Amino acid sequence: MEIILKEDIIGLGYKNDIVKVKDGYGRNYLIPTGKAVIANASSKKVLAENLRQQAAKLERVKAEAQAKGEQIANAQAIVIATKVSANGTIYGSVNSLHLAEALQAQGIEVNRKSIVVKDVKEVGQYVAKVCLHKEVEVELPFTVVAENQPVAEAPAEVPAEEVAVVEEVVEEAPAQEEEVSEEA
Q1: Number of structural domains, the chain?
Q2: 142 and 96, same structural domain?
Q3: The CATH number of the domain where 74 resides is what?
Q4: S-S: 84 plus which of 34, 120, 146, 155, CB 3.0-4.6 Å?
Q5: How many Cβ atoms sit within 10 Å of the Cβ of residue 159?
Q6: What's the predicted TM-score (pTM) here?
Q7: What is the pLDDT of residues 53-93, one digit of tens each?
């Protein structure tokens, strides 16, 4: 069954899209709740006329979505601290709500339902997708770290004197092993 969506439905399509769905889904859920109408010839003509009249408005909405996308792309790195077990598994999971709150802390308002993230159940680096408009999707990299773990700093340059001392110790160690094996 072909239908015309009257609103954005995550995983199905965006407003004014013509999509194919199973008959029961369209007849029993989408049409009665007012989320879609049957795509017959007359409703397609009405849709085309409405889209023609709203073209300027749609361009403005798309421009706003692109601006917000640039904001998200230029945002600071998102680090989410969470409780972690000894083997690195997260208690619970990190989801779109956590990412939306992290963006809001940076002053970027995003609907959490527009953030698509797979199950995050371990510490590491991940990428989420933010769907701001049907033509504007932004990748959002984020890092999940243990709550009480200190932040890893870049290794400082080791002075040459310490490197020489370490090399001497390494050279002496094999000689001591040879002496022990000769005595035995």
Answers
A1: 2
A2: yes
A3: 3.10.430.100
A4: 146
A5: 9
A6: 0.56
A7: 888 888 888 888 898 888 888 888 889 989 988 887 888 88
pLDDT digits (tens, 9 = 90+) for 81-127: 899 888 878 888 888 899 999 999 988 888 888 888 988 888 889 99
Same domain flag for 136 and 73: yes
Mapped onto helix, strand or coil, the DSSP state of residue 49 is helix
Give the whole-angstrom CA distance, residue 56 versus residue 175. 82
Instruction: Answer yes or no: do 136 and 72 share one domain.
Output: yes
Determine the Cα–Cα distance for residues 102 and 75; give it in Å rounded to an integer: 10
Residue 48, pLDDT > 60, answer: yes
Whether residues 111 and 44 fall in one domain: no
Residue 5, classified by CB atoms within 10 Å of its CB into exposed (0-12), middle (13-18) or buried (19+), is: buried
* CATH code of the domain containing 33: 3.40.5.10
Q: ∠46-62-6 over CA atoms, to 5°?
A: 35
Domain extent at residue 13: 2-53
